[in-house]
Amino acid sequence: MPAKSSTFYSLAVRHYVFVLPPLILLLRFATRKQDIFSPPPLALGSWQCNISVFTILTALLALLLILYFFVPLLSPKIKIGPQGIYILHANRLFTWDEISGASHVVIPQWQLAGDENWFDWEKTLIIHRYQQASVAIPDISIFSLWACKKYSPGLKTNLLTQGIASVIYSAWWLPFLYFLYTADWNLIISINMLNVISLVCIVGIFYWLILPYSICIMEKKRWHIRIPCQRQAEHTVYYLISKQ
Fold first, then answer.
1. I want to staple 106 with a disulfide (CB 3.0 to 4.6 A). Which of 22, 26, 141, 212 is the partner?
2. Strand blocks (E) in the chain
3. Is the peptide bond before 153 cis (omega within 30 degrees of 0)?
4. What is the pLDDT of residue 127?
5. Do 80 and 109 touch, CB atoms closer than 8 A?
6. Which pTM value belongs to this model?
7. So what's the pLDDT on residue 110?
8. What is the model's pLDDT at position 64?
9. Cα separation, 94 vs 80, whole angstroms
10. Which tens digits make up the pLDDT trace of 14-53?
11. Is a pLDDT exceeding 60 seen at residue 115?
12. Whole-angstrom Cα distance, residue 63 to residue 182?
């Protein structure tokens, strides 16, 4: 693969980064009645915290962003360039001549590896080939579709639909940042707990079931492939998806 190519990295580390936001919100909830620019009431013996809540939260948020965006750079996975899509660890090149299209979908891991991890989803790039089975590359960003369109403008992709879905996936940051820096928990406390639970369940069903499955079904019908599908190993560089 020539130097003029786009490199994409494994997003697997992000599965573990999502543990941090609830812990950060828990700290903010514990200090909700305190001025955000004052030190939290933390003391251990003669030591007392003199750092403001705002500084602590900002440092934790910066750590979260570093883990989310920069740690994946340590694990390059594929290169997309003028020749095609090259999988680094498998030393496998798929040329544009054999590729009919590309899809980006979010697939539940429990349907891939047969485990019972119901809350783990994989952002997967699917390479559709003319004569052979499609190739699925897990833990790849949606921006890989943009690179595909850049080097093969006529390639069929679901960049528009999956792009809209990705914006919706990212919308969870808005309430996170709101409660992180305003701590207006009265909005939650004032609502009936049953309504709060119902709202969380509805949003969860939409995020974890309706939206990703809708994209999968659209791509399944468009390309006549079997997704989600079983794969032989839980962790693999790529796997094949048979046609229907």
1. 212
2. 6-9, 43-44, 47-48, 76-80, 84-87, 92-95, 99-108, 121-129, 134-138, 156-157, 239-241
3. no
4. 96
5. no
6. 0.84
7. 60
8. 86
9. 10
10. 767 777 888 888 888 877 777 888 887 766 666 677 888 8
11. no
12. 20
DSSP-assigned beta bridge partners for residue 108: 121
Q: What is the rounded (10 degree) CA torsion for 238, 1, 127, 9?
A: 60
Rounded to whole angstroms, how far apart are CA atoms 63 and 18? 12
Please tell me the distance from the alpha carbon of residue 125 to that of residue 139, in angstroms, as a whole number.
8
Q: What is the pLDDT of residue 44?
A: 61
Report the chain's terminal Cα–Cα distance, integer Å: 32
DSSP one-letter string for 134-157: EEEEES--THHHHHHHHH-TT-EE
Look at residues 167, 148, 154, 149 and name the one whose alpha carbon lies nearest to residue 215: 167
d(C-alpha 45, C-alpha 82), whole Å: 63
CB contact at 8 A, 13 and 67: yes
What digits encode the pLDDT tens for the residues 132-169? 999 999 889 999 999 999 999 999 999 999 999 999 88
Question: Any residues with CB less than 8 A from the CB of 204 and at least 6 apart, and which?
Answer: none
| The one-letter amino acid at 185 | W
CA–CA distance, 241 with 3 (Å, rounded to integer): 30
